[in-house]
Amino acid sequence: MAEKKAGPAKAAKATKSESKSKSQSALQQKLGKLGLRSRNDLILHFPLRYEDETSVVTIAEAPWDGPVQVEVRVTDVSIQFRPRRQLVARCEDDSGELWLRFLNFYGSQAKQLETARDEGRKLRVFGEIRGGFFGSEMVHPRYKSLAPEGTGTSLPQSLTPVYPTTAGLAQSALRKIIGKALAESDLAETLDASLLQELDLAPFAASARLLHAPPPGTDEFSLQSRRHPAWRRIKFDELLAQQLSLRRAYLARREQGAPRLKASGDLAQRLLQQLSFQLTGAQQRVWQEIARDLGEAHPMQRLLQGDVGSGKTIVAALAACQAIECGWQAAFMAPTEILAEQHYKKLSAWLEPLGVSVAWLSGSLKSAKKKAAQAEAAAGAQLVVGTHALIQEDVDFLRLGLAIVDEQHRFGVAQRLELRKKGKAGIPHQLMMSATPIPRTLAMSYYADLDVSVIDELPPGRTPIRTKLVSDARRDEVVGAVRHAVESGRQAYWVCPLIEESEKLDLQAAIDTHAILAEELEGLSVGLVHGRLKPDEKAATMAAFAAGEIHVLVATTVIEVGVDVPNASLMVIEHAERFGLAQLHQLRGRVGRGAHESACVLLYATPLSQTGRARLKIIYENTDGFEIARQDLQLRGPGEFVGARQSGVPLLRYADLEMDGELVDLARDQAERLLRERPAEAERHLQRWLGSKEELLKA
Ligand code: ADP
Ligand code: MG
User: Fold this and answer.
1) Residue 105 has pLDDT above 50, yes or no
2) pLDDT tens-digit profile of 617-650?
3) Is the CB of 314 under 6 A from ligand 1?
4) Is the pLDDT of residue 208 over 50?
């Protein structure tokens, strides 16, 4: 009998502890969602904002423009059905009455309020007062029932933190867990006292404690201002950790070996001599920077930034020459078929006369041709140009010495690494190119593990592009301008509206636009190119446009990057308000490449939203890609930029790259210094900030 009794009791006990550990792991999971995996993570989980529960006002005095705290007696509790089912408590203090309303409530809540009424306990209530159905009211206030008169609960001394959280994790629970973490940790200092003094930084422990529970009466802690020295310290720490980890990755790469590509420069000189132009000063400078890197025994990781049309391709070709002259291969990868093919044509026109073998490898090649191209790469073709096809498994290089990636932001980190892995005979040098200029602070933050060269000058003789904003009510005039341009011997692009939601609609829009324009521009040759065309059809159309056989090229954004037809002097973009600013800037850069006066017409649909107007104004007023990017950053925030999300770089939570530019500089300098002079301190700091996250960075 006794045993029988024990059975169920034991089972019940087991289930209880099981369910406890289940809820424990559910909690872990929710914390994990917030990136909180260690005690350190909890300590560094700072509030978004605060609520002031440190004082109590009377109902009559309470302002109606924000949350307040009052202490009231409950006089009446009822469940009402007007206008819908709700729990209503009438309360009062000496100055007036206040109704509390709860639309969703538990039975226990009604009981609790009734008990407070019956026992004469006061409620301390926090919420916003407003005029309502019953009079002055608070809807869903937070409240707590106070001990009977005489033994009143004292008010908190500090502001109540409100943390970023996730569904199912209450603020109160998070506060408790974070409070415990703070109490259990010694909040040891990671940085040397001399450094703190030199940089005028507040101590970590005091800063962290303060930010989790600051005193009332100042605005210095709010997210908007974050002016307090405690915030400055935390932001600096965050930036320092980011810089340290990027810098360390950079240094680790320098430990790896790469072929020393030291050439006489003869091949490059021969290429320069046969060009119809001279390098600009900026091109010469970046070319020197690259040439020097290639001669080192560790892999170059250089980003070549230059606005649209600044002439990055020739610089890449010169770099390829250096590798080739040293007996190594170069690979040149571009994100689209059109662009890659154009590069192939240009590079082979430049290099084949110098006796360089250039191979072409793209996904669209028929299988026999693809096999042949792969065989050329494997046999040591000196330059291999192509699309993503270059990083497929079945592609091998005999001696890859230099990997060039054009429009690098179009590729993911993994893809860029794949190309590097193709170097069987050592890690190749890597040159990445981008026309998406990003502001300096952002570059420092996201590209701190790269060396950056910037072409900050356009080739001479370019006439500036005039940009016009035209309402689509005046489309006829624009069509007239296209005809006029063609009659004066020029060519034009007509970019179709972007239809984000549907590729099919996007395609249809292009086909329709083409049909309409072909009719409106009777007598002219109007071509069409879009993403769904077969690669050889695409290539044929582009070739016809380049040869001047097609006068007007209707296109979807497939022409966004890199296309180069100098005789095209007019660009029309329909529904310009739907495009991103970087995209518009890139598109506009397709014209103004020859000596002819060029124009870009941004057709917009009316009415234009306020942000739509603000964005088009930026493009209208600016021609400098960096300035456009800077303003775009202000409008959109950094997350969207340059594939920053997929860059593997830890995102900043507290520091703001725009507002805290000074700290970014400081953190970068100190990161270098710490790694050099006091690596243990650097390690300690990294552990605190990225200890549970560093695996993200090992890509
Ligand atoms: P991007 O930097 O946008 O890739 P490209 O390399 O396509 O620019 O160059 C744009 C055009 O300018 C090409 O036709 C190229 O041959 C030409 N170009 C490059 N450098 C010079 C120069 N120094 N002087 C004149 N034209 C140049
Ligand atoms: Mg280019």
Assistant:
1) yes
2) 999 999 888 788 778 777 765 544 444 444 445 5
3) yes
4) yes
CA of 285 to the centre of ligand 1 (A): 15
Residues 428 and 533 in one domain: no
The pLDDT score that the predictor gives to residue 519 is 95
- Residue 38 within any structural domain of the chain: no
Domain boundary among 124, 155, 186: 155
Assess whether 445 and 469 both reside in one domain.
no
Per-residue DSSP letters for 347-386?
HHHHHGGGT--EEEE-TTS-HHHHHHHHHHHHHT-SEEEE
Q: Is residue 141 part of a domain?
A: yes
Mean pLDDT of the 400-421 span: 82
Cβ distance 95 to 60 under 8 Å? yes
Instruction: Tell me, rounded to whole angstroms, the distance of Cα 381 from its chain centroid.
Output: 37
- Read off the CATH number of the domain in which 278 is found: 3.40.50.300
Query: Please, which pLDDT band fits residue 66 given cuts at 50, 70 and 90?
Result: confident
Contact (CB, 8 A) for 571 and 599: yes
CB 389, CB 370: distance < 8 Å: yes
As for how many domains the chain has, the answer is 3
For the beta sheet containing 122-128, the strands, ordered from the edge strand earlier in sequence to the opposite edge, are 130-131, 136-139, 96-102, 86-93, 67-80, 122-128, 142-145
DSSP run (H or E) holding 401: strand 400-405
HEC sequence for 98-127: EEEEECCCCHHHHHHHHHHHHHCCEEEEEE
Q: Let me know whether 435 and 472 are in one domain.
A: no
* Token pair in block for residue 211: 């930010």
**What is the residue range of 135's domain?**
55-155
Query: Best mutation site among 564, 586, 593 for ligand 1, i.e. most ligand atoms within 8 A of its Cβ?
Result: 564
- Does residue 554 share a domain with residue 406? no
Q: What is the pLDDT of residues 153-172, one digit of tens each?
A: 789 999 999 998 888 899 99
Note whether residue 163 is domain-resident: no
Q: Is the CB of 590 under 6 A from ligand 1?
A: no
From CA 239, how far away is CA 152, in angstroms rounded? 45
Ligand 1 centroid–CA 273 distance in Å is 16
Domain boundary among the residues 135, 155, 175 is at: 155
Instruction: Round the average pLDDT of the chain to a whole number and report it.
Output: 86
Neighbours of 456 (CB within 10 A): 17
If you average pLDDT over residues 265-285, what whole number do you get? Answer: 96
Tell me if 684 is assigned to some domain: no
State if residue 564 touches ligand 1 by the CB under 6 angstroms criterion: yes
Distance from chain centroid for Cα 233: 24
**pTM of the full predicted structure?**
0.69
Bond preceding residue 83 cis, omega within 30 of 0: yes
CB-side neighbour CA atoms (13 Å) of 575: 13
User: Is residue 527 in contact with ligand 1, taking CB distance under 6 Å?
Assistant: no
